[in-house]
Amino acid sequence: MLIAHYKEKLINAEFAQKQKKYTCPICHELVILKKGHKMVSHFAHYVSSDCVGNEGETQLHLKGKQHLLKDLIKEYPKIKLEIYLNDLKQRPDLLTGNLAFEYQCSPISNRRLKERVIGYQSRKINSIWILGMDYFKKNLHAYSVLRFIRYQKCVGFYLLFLDASQHQYCLKYQIYQIGNQIQCKLKIFDNYQMLIKFMKTPQQNTYLQPNLIKLTQSIETKVRWQDTTMTKLQKRCYENGHLLTGCPLIVYYPIQNSPILNRNWLEWKIEIILYLENKQECKLSDLYQLVNHEKFLFIKIKNPTLSFLKLLAKQQYVKIEGENIKLSQNFIWYRDTYDKIGAIKKLEKRHYYDS
User: Fold this and answer.
1) I need a labelling partner for 274 at 20 to 30 A (CA). Which of 96, 97, 131, 345 fits?
2) Is the dihedral of CA 101, 107, 113, 116 positive or negative?
């Protein structure tokens, strides 16, 4: 805790003096001022305290909050540290008007994160979550990281991190899923003003084309190694007279997917294809119920099911008439991996000569 009361005034621990007595702004109990050459100055409750503000913050979290205050105050002169919102029973790290900043270093449960975000939304407060470097080091496939993802027109899908030890912001932007890989760009900023300026400038959207042959081989490898998801999907294909390794090439498209699909990118597309083959005709709502995508707190995204169906319609596999979806031609399945790779080589060769 960086803020405490002294004679009814809020005092930052950085400027507090040890001989004085300070109280917690939330519970009004006496708190201990801790200062030292190797620690961030802060206030701590006594061990017996059950105050909601007695969270046991790390030095890195305290350091990050102090840095954010000093940096953000240039952009938001009225920004304050640790203002307790009594009606929400929440204390954002920093607050200015209807904007709350949270520096999230430690793990947080989905339930707790949802409670905090919805709490802020009930007060019409937009919460900006800046992640610590432990999150930065994690694989982007991890939902514990992806759940913080946001979207901004100029930079696409992005995640924001703060390296408190280096006083630098790290922006992972243009995050997209290409096949079973998640790609992104990285930019480092020394201050928040540079970051905001960059995010308000349209960035060129570039991404690597996937190797369809390697993607096909990776599916076969997972089937052979009895990957749990692939085994279930293989069984579903068997039941419909197909091999998973020979799935239609259309499932690889669109090439560039939003990262919210994560590793489930293949499963839900094949489920849609199998459903359409069995039913021939169905309602759009049937397919929405069939596919369960992760829910995200910070972005509202078009259902990827509809985007895939539009692609199928463009390739004349289905007809879409309002809420009705009708299969208009059979999907092309392949005998096995080798048959499929042969088809990919022919496709690539044709594209080469066409170009």
Assistant:
1) 345
2) negative
